[in-house]
């Protein structure tokens, strides 16, 4: 493919290739000289029209470790803030002949919109509520490294599913890799049509995490909720926040994940975030290796096809 828009366009063979490549790049990350010339001469524009710490930085680190030139553009410092359209901004960036644009934007479908209009690769770094494929890949990669395979494991995704692109991409990828996915949220924070998804649905945290091998906590995406319909944070934390008490009924050695940013004391108890069960920082480290793999595979696809 020219572009990475969501996980559903990747076959299981594609996912295996990405994971195998990420493993080979993990070795570079662990060496004292963390740079190889693999992508010298390639350029990547990191176009983040919505806030990001992990995704943007890890794409930047990934590109630089492979010797690609990376350039950052944010919404507030760009001419988007002067009314320029996404299309005109993208065509302007394309005229600078990058090999890839990594896009984060608040509109669902924004990555596809650009991918259909640009010659360079477009990598979706999160589009609205729709998809966050590189997050799902790094989550599945992290769990695969822990367990050898996610097949047959039970993964509970807990929190604001309705507004979560992370949940949507993870449900697709984890279920196709053979995991059982349980979603746990208040009814108001489950998406329309969720009953057709290949998941179990729960509204009680204790039941949802029973015998689970991993629990992925998601934050409340208050920025995507209407004013006046915001949940009471204290009540939400009491009812849907993950606490050590819940994990007593989970599988032994249950793993706790969070894509970040975390709101400690709301969707996750602070001690759990720092506990031996937590894979939160492993996810960040995996993110660099997975994004190195993706940049390598997408930026060298023409050479590989020859
Ligand atoms: N997980 C994630 O997308 O984090 P950022 O918003 O910090 O990139």
TrEMBL record:
Its recorded name reads Aspartate carbamoyltransferase
BP term (GO), one: 'de novo' pyrimidine nucleobase biosynthetic process
What family is this protein classified in? Belongs to the aspartate/ornithine carbamoyltransferase superfamily. ATCase family.
Write out the residues that bind L-aspartate.
Answer: 82, 165, 219
Q: Which reaction does it catalyse?
A: carbamoyl phosphate + L-aspartate = N-carbamoyl-L-aspartate + phosphate + H(+)
Q: Which GO terms describe its molecular function?
A: amino acid binding; aspartate carbamoyltransferase activity
The record's keywords, sorted A to Z, are:
Pyrimidine biosynthesis, Transferase
- Locate the Aspartate/ornithine carbamoyltransferase Asp/Orn-binding domain: which residues? 152-296
Specify the species.
Answer: Alkalidesulfovibrio alkalitolerans DSM 16529
